[in-house]
Amino acid sequence: MVLPSAILLPLYLYPSAPTTWTPLYNSLTAHPTTHFDIVINPDSGPSLVGPSDDALSDYVAAVSQLRTYPNVHIFGYVYTSHGAASLQPALLSNISRYATWNAYTPSNISLDGIFFDEAPSAYDADIFTNLATAAALARSSGLRRAIFNPGAVADTRYFALADSVVVFEGAYADFDASAIAALAQGVRANSSVVVYDYTGAEADQKALVERLVGLGLGSLDVTTTGSYSEWSALWAAFTQQVSSAVGVE
Ligand SMILES: *[C@@H]1O[C@H](CO)[C@@H](O)[C@H](O)[C@H]1NC(C)=O
Ligand SMILES: *[C@@H]1O[C@H](CO)[C@@H](O)[C@H](O)[C@H]1NC(C)=O
Ligand SMILES: *[C@@H]1O[C@H](CO)[C@@H](O)[C@H](O)[C@H]1NC(C)=O
Question: Which top-level group of life is the source organism from (predicted)?
């Protein structure tokens, strides 16, 4: 069974005020049966300090607010450096740090999983083992979901380690939907697409969203900016378009 496509939002925007993430809260309320996968990124990873440290108080407040919406999964960002052995200790330590968020009791800031940025695409046995070890640590720590972001079509063996693999992350000018359509349907269901620097009109974005949802992708993002720390000018329209395309409204 193919599940309806979810919205994938890399949300690297620092929640400096209670209203900073309001466009997201508004969309979660407006589209309660659309599913949102949100990637938070306190400090190119979980930050060196734990959630009880004052330095993270803005994040604790924002994530506990986000946690009140039933239609989200929250992912912690980690940098993977293509599975490099030299980064493996830091990667495992980042995952263990995020796991402490799930044990934090003053408020619910529990995370559903880990977003592995700069994941590998070409298969290599040692690199595969590093990623398998990291994904297993995350799962056994209660961070049960994994998204890998190679930003390109990855070797199919990596799909066994992750719920979803970002098979395209790039500018709209470089996006080729036919390359995604060429993937087997079973692969597309576990694939995500992130298109940034979208320059078209709102109506053309709607057609793009309909095409991507129609391909049966696991999740998608289309944003007018080239930065994950700003809202797309078409964010609200995008969430409406995905919701219409998946047929929930
Ligand atoms: C997280 O990983 C980064 C490298 O990407 C490293 O610099 C940092 O110290 C790690 N943080 C923790 C808490 O493990
Ligand atoms: C925190 O929120 C999540 C998602 O709603 C829920 O599954 C979990 O049980 C909550 N944790 C606690 C300790 O209430
Ligand atoms: C692929 O995605 C489906 C949901 O569409 C999920 O149930 C399944 O666990 C995923 N497969 C893997 C290997 O993660």
Answer: Eukaryota
